[in-house]
Amino acid sequence: MPITARRHARFCEPRCRAAAARRRQTIPTELTSRPRWIRHSARKVPLTIGGSVASSTDPSTWSRYRDAAASSEGAGLGFVLDGDGLVCLDLDHCLDADGDPMPWAQTILDAAGDTWVEVSRSGDGLHVWGRGALQHGRRITFNGGSVELYADGRYIAVTGRAFGDTPRRLGDLQHVIDALL
Fold it and tell me: What is the DSSP secondary-structure string of 113-181?
């Protein structure tokens, strides 16, 4: 940012602000309608919209989407999973240098079908969002790749960067969860 920018400015110029607004619009309503949003630091520490430490198990530290998106605290947005049937499959380091899924990840994406998928904060992973039941979060190895499955007591850093032509809705992932476990 130019030196003349205000200290609290979040964007270097109007086109960056417009691009961020477009990214926000890709997040499905099934997520944005729930008051389970937080901010997070660069080290992924959960934060309230006021900058205090938040908790993935204390709803009093969560906010509505519009309030979290408007906050300039921390480095980005996060969504808290609270066991209500929403799940996230976190596919770590699954995109190659061209941004294409590795074969093990493509298998999961094909099985997931019509559900929202976003590029993770690192830029080389994916978050597959949907509905399903999962007793405990866990990390597994699948065909040489690393998959984390979460449904409760965790937050996921949300980028809003849709992967490919993914739909803006959450699909049923129970069959994928059952196959992975």
Answer: -SS-EEE-TTSS-EEEEEE---SS-EEEEETTEEEEEE-EEEEEEE---B-TT--SS-EE-HHHHHHH-
Q: Does the active-site annotation cover 82?
A: no
Question: Of the residues 30, 92, 152, 172, which is catalytic?
Answer: 92
Task: Reply yes or no on whether 40 is catalytic.
Answer: no
Catalytic annotation present for 30: no
Question: Could you say which of 40, 82, 118, 127 is catalytic?
Answer: 127
Sequence-separated (6 or more) residues with CB below 8 Å from residue 12: 1, 2, 5
What is the radius of gyration, based on Cα positions, of the chain? 16
Check if 98 is active-site.
no
Sole residue written with tokens 């906010």: 63
Place of tokens 């849709």: 162
Per-residue pLDDT of the chain (181 residues; tens, 9 = 90+): 555 554 445 556 665 655 555 444 589 999 999 999 999 999 999 999 999 999 999 999 999 999 999 999 999 999 999 999 999 999 999 999 999 999 999 999 999 999 999 999 999 999 999 999 998 899 999 999 999 999 999 999 999 999 999 999 999 999 999 999 9
Beta-ladder partners of 147: 91, 140
Which residue bears the tokens 């919209």? 49
Q: Where are the domains of the chain?
A: 14-77, 86-180
